[in-house]
């Protein structure tokens, strides 16, 4: 499932609000995600939870205080079907893989991937987003991300006691198996 030379970077839980998404994660894993930041390019914001070295869970939502972006938001957040899905509750919707060759991999994708440069605080990265904002391959292919420099958000996160032990990318409904102090939990 992952492009050659890439590794899992993070899993994505989307929600209507960060509080709703964080409550959902905490109810399942027993740990609350910590503040991440704002993504001015996309009009979104997030909270994060460590799942091991250089792997994390991201809770993402549209930032109600941000102006609408000039393009479709990532992770299909502007799509009516995603809006309807999230009205039923937060969900694990996608995953991202880390690569060192994002331009090459994006150029081979059938999804019309645009590589965007963005940042949040000290973090700088390039990310592959379909021009229409939808999930790559309708959710069957990962989002590509390439971090600039040696810093990664997972390095600054507190130890959550949770570790990602498996990911089943099953189309637009992925499933993550996460070891927690309570035992192994399935997020879908």
Q: How do you describe this structure in short?
A:
By secondary structure, the protein is of the alpha+beta class. It contains four helices and eleven strands. The chain has one domain: 2,3-Dihydroxybiphenyl 1,2-Dioxygenase, domain 1, CATH 3.10.180.10.
Shape by Cα distribution: globular
The CATH superfamily turns out to be 2,3-Dihydroxybiphenyl 1,2-Dioxygenase, domain 1
Distance between the termini: 18 Å
The CATH topology is: 2,3-Dihydroxybiphenyl 1,2-Dioxygenase, domain 1
Summed up, the helix count is 4
- What is the number of E strands? 11
- Round the mean pLDDT to the nearest integer and report it: 94
- Strand order in the largest sheet: 2-3-4-1-5-8-7-6
**CA-atom Rg in angstroms:** 15 Å
| Percentage of residues in helical conformation | 10-25%
Oligomeric state of shown chains? single chain
Which structural class do you get from the secondary structure elements?
alpha+beta
Largest sheet: 8 strands, mixed
- The CATH class is identified as Alpha Beta
Low-confidence stretches: none
Proportion in β-strands: 35-45%
Question: What's the architecture, going by CATH?
Answer: Roll
Sequence of secondary-structure elements: EHEEEHEHEEEHEEE
What's the domain count?
1
């Amino acid at each position: 499932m992952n492009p050659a030379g890439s590794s899992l970077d993070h899993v994505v839980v989307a929600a209507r609000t960060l509080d709703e998404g964080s409550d959902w994660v905490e109810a399942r894993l027993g740990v609350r995600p910590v503040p991440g930041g704002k993504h001015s390019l996309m009009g979104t914001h997030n909270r994060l939870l460590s799942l091991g070295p250089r792997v994390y869970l991201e809770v993402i939502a549209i930032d109600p205080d941000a102006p609408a972006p000039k393009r479709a938001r990532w992770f299909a957040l502007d799509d009516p079907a995603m809006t309807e899905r999230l009205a039923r509750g937060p969900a694990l919707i996608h995953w991202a893989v880390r690569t060192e060759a994002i331009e090459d991999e994006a150029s081979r994708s059938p999804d019309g991937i645009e590589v965007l440069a963005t940042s949040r605080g000290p973090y700088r990265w390039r990310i592959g987003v379909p021009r229409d904002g939808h999930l790559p391959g309708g959710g069957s292919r990962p989002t590509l991300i390439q971090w600039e420099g040696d810093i990664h958000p997972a390095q600054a996160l507190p130890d959550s006691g949770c570790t990602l032990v498996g990911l089943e990318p099953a189309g637009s409904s992925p499933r993550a198996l996460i070891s927690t102090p309570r035992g192994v939990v399935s997020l879908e």
